[in-house]
Amino acid sequence: EIVLTQSPATLSLSPGERATLSCRASQSVSSYLAWYQQKPGQAPRLLIYDASNRATGIPARFSGSGSGTDFTLTISSLEPEDFAVYYCQQRSNSGTFGQGTKVEIK
Amino acid sequence: EVQLVQSGAEVKKPGESLRISCKGSGYSFTSYWISWVRQMPGKGLEWMGRIDPSDSYTNYSPSFQGHVTISADKSISTAYLQWSSLKASDTAMYYCARRTRGYMDVWGKGTTVTVSS
Fold first, then answer.
1. Rg of chain B over CA atoms, in angstroms?
2. CA–CA separation, B52 vs B44, rounded Å?
3. Averaged over B11-32, what is the pLDDT?
4. For B27, phi and psi rounded to 5 degrees?
5. How far is CA A78 from CA A7, A41, A45, A66, B104, in A?
6. Which residue of A has its CA nearest to B95?
7. What are the φ/ψ torsions at residue B76 (nearest 5 degrees)?
8. Where residue A93 falls among pLDDT bands split at 50, 70, 90?
9. Which of residues 24-43 of A touch B (CB under 8 A)?
10. What SS3 class is residue B90?
11. Given a cut of 80, is residue A92 above it in pLDDT?
């Protein structure tokens, strides 16, 4: 089973700053990786699929990159509504998630 | 509007059985797989398994195989997640989600399951 490891566990930043989140796979997943955002009390929301494609309605400040085993989600300038937990997920047979990165207000 | 509507919160005792539901609308229900995802209190997301509503083919995460059953009734555009004997450790929020290109693009609001004696 493919294991996804996210880092850091928590990212403390201020609005307007750049956020860089990492997701590393235990073996290559090609470009088959997604990122989700979850706010407290809400269901997750798909942000990025196939490593770098924004889902419908997702603002341009969210971008994804990477392939193989190393992936990055970048939020270019944090808005107040971006403080949340972010998960990566690979789309192989098992569809496992990473453990999440919490982006909190500094 | 494409949406998945999940059944309401449940409170059960250990050993009881339970089936929760997820009804799709606004799209062709048989054209997309449905996945189920568990989130234990204060924890991350865990993929449990998925079903193809067109023929009810399923596959499960090894962590959940044998512990839950996923099914679907395409005539009423509804997927199900069921337990035959609940444990306290099944206490969690359960989400259903539509699978598009391998990813979960539409999510239900979740069903809270509480198992307590």
1. 13
2. 25
3. 98
4. -155, 170
5. 18, 21, 17, 21, 24
6. A43
7. -125, 20
8. low
9. 32, 34, 36, 38, 43
10. helix
11. no
Candidates A36, A43, A95; nearest CB to B110: A43
Taking the C-alpha atoms of residue A51 and residue A73, their distance in angstroms, rounded to an integer, is: 9
- What's the average model confidence in pLDDT over A76-88? 97
- Average model confidence (pLDDT) across chain B: 97
Chain B residues interacting with chain A (CB cutoff of 8 angstroms): 35, 37, 44-47, 50, 59, 61-62, 95, 97, 101-105, 107-110
Q: How far is A42 from chain B (nearest CA, A)?
A: 7
The Cα–Cα gap between B56 and B24 comes to 15
Q: Are B39 and B48 in contact (CB under 8 A)?
A: no
Q: Nearest-5° angle of CA B67, CA B72, CA B75? A: 165
Contact (CB<8Å) B95/A87: no
Rounded distance between C-alpha atoms, residue B51 and residue A16, angstroms: 41
- pLDDT value at residue A1: 83
Residues B91-109 pLDDT 10s: 999 999 999 988 999 999 9
> Which carries the bigger pLDDT value, residue A92 or residue B107?
B107
